[in-house]
Predict the 3D structure of the following.
Amino acid sequence: MFARQQAAAAHANWGEFVIEAFIRVLGFSTIGFVLLIFLFLLREGVPIFYKVPPSNLFGIHWYPIFDLFGTLPLLLGSVFVTVTAILIALPLGVATAVFVREVAPNWAREVLKPMIEVLAGIPSVVLGFFGMHVVAPLIRETLGAPTGLTVFTGGLLLAYMALPTIISVAEDALDAVPKSFRDAGLAMGATQWQTIWRVVVPAARSGITTAVMLGMGRAIGETMAVMMVTGNAARMPLSLDALFKPARTMTATIAAEMGEVAQGSAHYHALFGIGIILFILTLLINLVAVSTIFKKQRRGGLR
Amino acid sequence: MSRYWVQRLGFALLGLAALAVVAPILVVIGIIVVEGMGAVSWEFITAMPFDGMKQGGIFPALVGTLVLTLGTALVAIPIGVGGTIYLAEYARDTWVTRCIRLAIVNLAGIPSIVYGLFGLGMFVLFLRMGTSILAGALTLAIMTLPVIISTAEEALRAVPTEFRTVSASLGGTRWQGIRYIILPQALPGIITGVILGLLRAAGETAPILFTVAAFFLPRLPQSPFDQTMALPYHLYVISTQVPGMPLRIQHGTALVLLALVLSMNLMATIIRSYFRRRRQW
Amino acid sequence: MVDPKIHIDKVSYAYGKNWVLRNVMLDIAANSVTVFFGPAGGGKTSLLRLINRLNDLTEGTQMTGRILLDGQDIYSSDTHVAKLRRRVGMVFALPLPLPGTVRENVLYGPKLAGIGDRPRLSEILERSLTQAALWEEVKDRLDHPATALSGGQQQRLCIARSLALEPDVLLLDEPTSGLDPISTRKVEDSLFELKQQYTIIIVPHSIQQAARIADQAAFFLMGDLVEYAPGTELFTRPRDKRTEDYVTGRFG
């Protein structure tokens, strides 16, 4: 365990200083990377504002061949798919978290937790592949959608991709609720079920909100799985039945079209512009998600 | 309805939800295994593809993924672990430290396709690396940083503070304490986190789309400046852009990728539980 | 006192705004057992940690005054803290074995200090464990994990660990508080032996223990040094009423 300590002691003073400086630089590197990323996105994305009037970018038509770069259908596509995903993942995720943390017997917990970790590890492209070949045909058969490649299909897949995040953060939130709360509930004659829903979950409310927001951030940022199952039609999803029609997300647009653009063309810059929107959007979501934790800590609340 | 019946019903519903989460995982894995088993053989894994990928093996894609993962590890581990040591052991609670933490949260939330754009803009174009293993690995490495940092920090903080105090009281400098006691004790946790981060990098497609991936290369990459094939990208292309691609081969490719990722997952889990039992604190 | 080993000169110490030590002046003689005792919150442990600069590890504190070891200010900017801590060792209230074997625990300090040759290390190992009254019990188990030892043995291991560096001064913070009476007795007995070679400052965990072992005794109350006198006097004929009240059990 302590093989080379004697050599180290000889250089204790200046060696220590060099190491500490090096580690400090590495610590600060993360800030550097975030700035770099933002910088390069801006570098390649901002030129779109010189090439195309802003009204174009807020338009409802994304037809790059005709120089129409309306980002609205893409934005709405992402939002629609994400909202669908969250509507599915929120109840499932919170229920599972509650089950694992409060109800499940030990053996069930030992099985569930690794499985959820497995889900977290399944590559996006594999889920997309599965979605294409199994889920989409299923939806086509049962719901009559022409190709089965719809917003709903995408939302369903995204829900499962966001679930591990939601479940683990929600679990942490439930964990942070002091045992005394549960004991107090039970001592007042409530059943475990009542205690869970009237005492524990409300107490973990902010942590659960964080979980959902982080899940949402994950969903909006997903690329491959959505790309393979939402059908890639850059339309405006404006009515409820658009749920079962194809759509295009921002992420899929970038992935699908970047390979074919000429560097420096308006299309190229527009795609980077979408990247900037995604960067800022996910930044905001994650900041809000994390700030709820920080606020709690200052108030000396439950965490 | 009596309260206890409500409870039983409620618990059953919760269990059902958990089942609804977990069962599809088994279905996905099951179907891919069943459909893909037929295609996977030693030849499939070790042979080069031909006839427009419709025959032969996926060897170059597998090698490409392994090489990219290795490259990611070489860059992300030193920066990630070093940065974590700074955060857990040296940093004081100042606004700068809070900025660093904020940066890590940001990095964790950036969509993988945006990393791809960044890699394209900075490594491929600005630094003129071209679409290359170097560009791809660097992009993947930065993407993997937040995962490594957060698990490593957890592992370092789990080591009891008392060890640091004892080391100091015996004349140990801060670095000596870290190097000889804290780090070795946190190593299993750090390794687990690294493996989990790397398996994510191995399975990602979006960051490598514009930075390194190629669909067909006649031979294996010879240098870090070469392009390479990669399993996730390969699966994507053969399942969406090659007409007439035998379904069996698609499933087989998916199976190989899944097997790679799941075995890394298993390795991480085993390491974690083995060392948890052997812990001396 | 002729040339004190440690001279504590008007030391005050605060956590944030909370002053836990006020204007403490104290001389510690070499090769003696000095006892810091008093009710909780008196500042005894804080003072102890000032002497080996372990307080450097805590943020948000302030200190005024000087502490001199052999005439040198230990807080001067050219003091090498790690070297200081090798001269001033510390044993904590709970046994805190480092992960590793008995051998690794004892030799951690010397190896960090650069001692590499094996015969010398073996000699250090045996000497320290003997001085801590532990050698006979562990000599066949040197390469077993330290956590396999009993609580009392672990604490004596911690003492051996500090002794391995051959410090000038040994600081002990309630070293027997977690131990059974037999282990306590063994530790106290070894202190009688050790003081011939080392200067010992100890925060006892009971007044009775203080009375048993003290050459000099210092009574601390709420951060003030109330009284400082030879043990034989302070416990039998205390001069300050507060000392008397505490020693006779009227409070605390």
Summary: The mean pLDDT of chain C is 90. Chain C is about 35% helix and 25% strand. Residues 110 and 139 of chain C are 19 Å apart (CA to CA). The radius of gyration of chain C is 18 Å.
